[in-house]
Amino acid sequence: MILVTGASGFIGSKLCEALLHHGHKVLGVDNFYHNYDKWIKEFNIKNLLGDPDFIFLENNILDPSMKQLIEGLNIESVIHLADIPGVNYCSEVNFDEYIKYNIVATQRILEAIKNKGVKKFIYASSSTVYGETGILPMSEITNPRPISLYGVSKLAGESLATYYGNGYDIDIINLRFFTTYGPHQRPDMAFHKFIKSILLDEDIIVYGDGKQRRDFVYVEDVVDSIVHLLQRELVDEIINIGEGYSLSVNDSISIIENMLNKKGKIVYTEPLIEEQINTKACTNLYEKIMFRDKKTDIEKGINREIKYIKQLYNI
Predict the structure, then answer these.
(1) Residue 6 included in any domain
(2) In this structure, is residue 306 part of a structural domain?
(3) pLDDT per residue over 274-311, tens digit each?
(4) Residue 110 falls within a domain, yes or no?
(5) Of all residues in the chain, what percent carry a pLDDT higher than 90?
(6) What region holds the NAD-dependent epimerase/dehydratase domain (predicted)?
(7) Residue 90 has pLDDT above 90, yes or no
(8) CATH number, domain with residue 19
(9) What's the chain's average pLDDT?
(10) How many CB atoms are located within 10 Å of the residue 283 CB?
(11) What is the total count of domains within the chain?
C-alpha cells in the first residue's frame, strides 16, 4: 500500500488517481487545511471514494493518533505532499504555522514510519529552495539559497527526509517541483486565477511587469514521474521536476486569452519582494532517470485546465 499525504490537494488528488489506475492500493490522508475552500478539495477526490483500493482518512498528520492509524497497513512507500503552499502567503507574521505544517509535520510522518518496513519516501519539495541563483537552468548541484521563508521551510523538509533516510534505511527522493499547472490546480495559483478571471470578466492582478518567467510543468506529467519513481532503486536523490523551458506571465496570459477567444482585464501592481524573477529547471537528471517519452505541450495542458475550471464553477 502507498500512503499519500495531502491526498485531496492539487497534485495529491491527481496522483491518487494515477496510482489506482496503475493497480496500487492507496491510503490517502488529508485534514482539509483551510488555505482554500473545502468543497474544491472534496470535488477533487469525489470519484476516488468509491474505489475499493482507496482508503481516505480525514486526519492531521500532526495528530499523535496518526502513528496508530497506519499500524498494520503494510505501507511500502510514502509520498509526502502535504504542506501549506504559497510563497506569497508565508511571512514572518505567520511563519509559526509553516513551521508546524511544513517542517514539524514532515518530521512527524517520518517518525511514524521509521522501523515499519517502509522502503521509499518521496518528498515534495519546491524550486523555491534555489532562490535567485543568477544561473539558469537551475541544477540540483547548485547550492540552494532560498529568498522566501516558504523556500526555507521546504529545504528544511528535504534535510529531515535525508536525515531519516540515512538513519533508518529508507530510500529518499526529494523532488523539486517547478510551477505545476493543470486540472485540480489550487485557486490561488496563476493559471487558475487567470482562466477564472477571464471567464468571469474579473480583473487579473499581475505582480510586477509580468515579464517574470516560470518553468511550467503539467500535473499529469508530474504524477506519471512519481509513479515511475516508485519502481526505481534510488537511495538518496534530488530531482528537478520541470520542463526545462520558461514562459513569461504575460505570454501565458496571452495563450489563455487566445484559447478563450477573450481578452483579460490585466491590472499590474507592485512586485512581490520574495518572488523569484526567473525559474528554469535543469532537466538532465530528470530525463536520464525518467526515460520520458512524452511531454504535455502548454496549449494542450491549459485547455484541459480550462475544461476543469468550467466544470468546477459551472461556467
Answers:
(1) yes
(2) no
(3) 889 999 999 999 999 987 666 899 999 999 999 999 99
(4) yes
(5) 87
(6) 2-242
(7) no
(8) 3.40.50.720
(9) 95
(10) 23
(11) 1
